[in-house]
Write a structure and sequence with these properties.
Keywords: DNA-binding, Transcription, Transcription regulation. The protein has 12 helices and no strands. It is mainly alpha-helical. The longest helix is centred in the middle third of the chain and has 32 residues.
Length: 263
C-alpha cells in the first residue's frame, strides 16, 4: 500500500494475503507462539484505537509481548502488515454471503457495509488504495459490484465502467466521513464547530457580489443543515442519480439504451 519505489513484493505478500487458501502444513515440534492472523488482528486493534501511525512493528511487538525482530518471521515488513490489515477488514465486510435479489438493493447493501467498515476502522482513510493489496477482500468487493450490474444488459465495456463508478462514489464518500472522524479526534472539533470558528470570514471578507450563487442559496436556507449532514445528503443524491443513469443506459427504465456500438 505505501510502497512508492516500484519494487515488486508480490512473491512474499501474495502467499500471506491468500494464506487461508493454502492447505495448512503441520510443523514438527512445538506450535509457533504467534500466527499471521494474530499479528494482523493486533495491528488492527492498535490502528482502531490509536491510528495507523501507531501500528509500528515495535508497538506491535510490545502489544504481543514478543521481540520486534520476532514479528518479521511472520510479516516481512510494516508495508506488508498494512496490506494485510487492509485486506482483513475488507474481508470482514462479509460480501461473500447472501445478497438481495434487486440489484439496487445489492448496491445499497454494499454501500452500507462499506460505510460501516470505515466507521469501525477510520484509519483506512489514511491508507492509499490506488494500488491495493490483491487479496480476498479486495477481489470480493470487485466481484460483488460487478455481479450486481452484470445482469442489467449493459454492453460488456460498460459493465466495468458502471461498477468502477459505483465503487468509486461509495468509497470516496465513506473515506470522507472517516477523515472527518479522524479530524474530530485530532482537533476536538466537529465539522460544524470548525466552520463556526471561521465566522469572521463571512462577516468581514465574503463578497456577496462576487459570489451571487452562494449568497442566493444561503439566503434560501440551502446551507442550513450541518456540514456532515450536507455531505451525507450529497452522497445519497449522487448515488441515486448514478444508479438511475446506469439503469437508463441499460434500457431497464423504459428508455432506449444508447448505441451499443459506442464503446
Amino acid at each position: 500500500m505505501g510502497r512508492l519505489d516500484g519494487t515488486d513484493f508480490t512473491g512474499r505478500i501474495l502467499p500471506l494475503l491468500w494464506r487461508r487458501s493454502i492447505p495448512a502444513r503441520k510443523a514438527a515440534g512445538r506450535p509457533p507462539r504467534l500466527t499471521v492472523d494474530a499479528v494482523v488482528a493486533a495491528g488492527i486493534r492498535i490502528a482502531d484505537a490509536e491510528g495507523i501511525e501507531a501500528a509500528s512493528m515495535a508497538r506491535l511487538g510490545a502489544e504481543l509481548s514478543v521481540a520486534t525482530m520476532t514479528l518479521y518471521t511472520y510479516v516481512p515488513s510494516r508495508d506488508d502488515l498494512v496490506d494485510l490489515m487492509v485486506d482483513e477488514v475488507f474481508v470482514e465486510r462479509g460480501l461473500h454471503g447472501p445478497r438481495p435479489e434487486d440489484w439496487r438493493e445489492q448496491i445499497r447493501s454494499y454501500a452500507d457495509r462499506t460505510f460501516a467498515m470505515y466507521r469501525a476502522h477510520p484509519w483506512l482513510a489514511r491508507v492509499s488504495q490506488l494500488r491495493p493489496p490483491i487479496g480476498p477482500g479486495m477481489l470480493a468487493e470487485q466481484e460483488y459490484v460487478l455481479a450486481a450490474v452484470s445482469g442489467l444488459g449493459l454492453p460488456t465495456a460498460q459493465v466495468s465502467r458502471a461498477a468502477t463508478a459505483i465503487s468509486g462514489w461509495v468509497v470516496a464518500a465513506a473515506r470522507q466521513e472517516a477523515e472527518s472522524t479522524l479530524l474530530r479526534r485530532a482537533t476536538g472539533l466537529s465539522s460544524d464547530e470548525w466552520w463556526l470558528q471561521r465566522g469572521e470570514l463571512w462577516e468581514k471578507w465574503f463578497d456577496v457580489e462576487a459570489h451571487p450563487a452562494m449568497t442566493a442559496l444561503w439566503n434560501a436556507g440551502g446551507f442550513d443543515r450541518g456540514a456532515d449532514e450536507q455531505a451525507r445528503d450529497a452522497y445519497e443524491y449522487g448515488l441515486g442519480l448514478l444508479l438511475d443513469g446506469i439503469e437508463r443506459s441499460s434500457g431497464s427504465l423504459g428508455f432506449p439504451p444508447p448505441d451499443s456500438s459506442v464503446q
